[in-house]
Design goal:
With about 350 residues, the protein is mostly beta strands. The protein contains no helices and 24 strands. It has strands at about 10-15, 25, 30-35, 50-60, 65-75, 75-85, 90-100, 115-120, 125-130, 135-145, 145-155, 165-170, 175-190, 195-200, 205-215, 215-230, 235-240, 255, 260, 265-270, 280, 285-300, 305-320, 325-344.
């Protein structure tokens, strides 16, 4: 029997003294304290860190490009990576570094306060959460032969809702995730002599903030977009599947003018043999087609840690029904859909 999704509305720790989830469900804002120090995956306390995965992934969508900056601590190793997708010429460039035992990577305890950072000899990155503002800075000395610097500001009004999911994975694993779409963005990106300036009237930021203990062999699909409707309202899409007990909660949401509209179930179909073919996303409230125009592939093989990502950038078209019955027409909304396989 399928359980109804539970909306979390009260604050609490993420884990109890036994390392079990205190609350399971979804929320519109982060209400749980990420007390990962209370995880109990291994009997030896010092070994816990090797199974806990943490990351902060920021992105910005403008009319011309998508920029993404990530800090990740995977226990055995850390990763810092930046990529830029050029919508005009259909190309992308990516640079990454892998750091044994994630030395030097500092990630904030929770998603609504604090600073995440890394400072190396050739790469410096900082994610700072201030009141109603998120500031993202990066310097990469050799980004395809040219220096890259970015200084971005993401506005975060107090009433701006997000997609928060807390679900178990088996008996002693869990997934705690917050995704924010449609953050009005400003600032600049400079690569060599070329400078791009972002205007909140046309550029929107997003955050994927993840914490948890996964199975060693993991798989997921994630699809998302942030943009504007013809009437000027901001619109965000978020959906995905692949791990955890999704009878308790899913991450299927429509974000309309800063408010979350929860979608109970969405069926996602695509061709894993040809990711460039159109994807479909359907339910009684969703009828969307996603047509890719670019495939970003990222592979990592560090023996213990392996991953393969096929991230498709493309355009969404179709309809989504809001909670109040409004039929929201989507036409040419730029976003992405990805398949990710990992051994970590």
């Amino acid at each position: 029997m399928t359980q109804l999704e539970h909306e979390i509305t009260q604050s609490s720790p993420l884990l109890d003294e036994r390392g079990s989830l205190v609350q399971i469900g979804w929320a519109r804002r982060p209400l749980l304290d990420g007390n990962l120090e209370d995880a109990r995956f291994y009997g030896v306390r010092a070994a816990q860190r090797f199974r806990i995965k943490r990351w902060d992934y920021y992105g910005i969508t403008s009319p011309d490009l998508y920029l993404s900056i990530t800090l990740a601590d995977l226990g055995y190793a850390g990763q810092v990576f930046v990529y830029v997708v050029d919508f005009l010429d259909g190309t992308y460039h990516e640079e990454s570094i892998t750091i044994p035992l994630a030395r030097g990577i500092a990630l904030a305890r929770n998603s609504d306060k604090g600073e995440s950072s890394y400072s190396g000899s050739k790469v410096q990155t900082s994610f700072l959460v201030e009141e109603k503002l998120r500031r993202v800075k990066v310097r990469w000395d050799d980004f395809g032969g040219r220096p890259l610097t970015a200084d971005l500001h993401f506005q975060m009004p107090t009433d701006h809702e997000s997609t928060v999911v807390v679900i178990p994975i088996g008996d002693n694993r869990f997934y705690y995730n917050r995704k924010i779409n449609c953050l009005p963005a400003s600032g600049s990106l400079q690569i060599g002599e070329q400078t791009t300036r972002f205007d909140p009237a046309s550029s929107l930021g997003n955050l994927d903030w993840g914490r948890g203990v996964w199975e060693y062999n993991s798989f997921w699909v994630w699809a998302s977009a942030s943009g504007f409707l013809a009437d000027g309202r901001s619109v965000g899409l978020n959906t995905g599947f692949g791990f955890g007990d999704t009878t308790r909660a899913t991450e299927h949401t429509l974000l309309l003018a800063g408010r979350i509209h929860k979608i109970p179930r969405i069926g996602i179909e695509y061709d894993p043999g040809d990711f460039m073919r159109p994807w479909t996303m359907k339910s009684d409230r969703v009828d969307l087609t996603f047509v890719p125009f670019l495939e970003r592939t990222a592979k990592t093989n560090l023996l213990i840690i392996r991953s393969e990502v096929h991230q498709m950038f493309g355009r969404y078209a179709g309809t989504v029904v809001a909670d109040n019955g409004e039929i929201v027409a989507i036409d040419g909304l730029v976003g992405w859909a990805e398949e990710h396989k990992a051994r970590w």
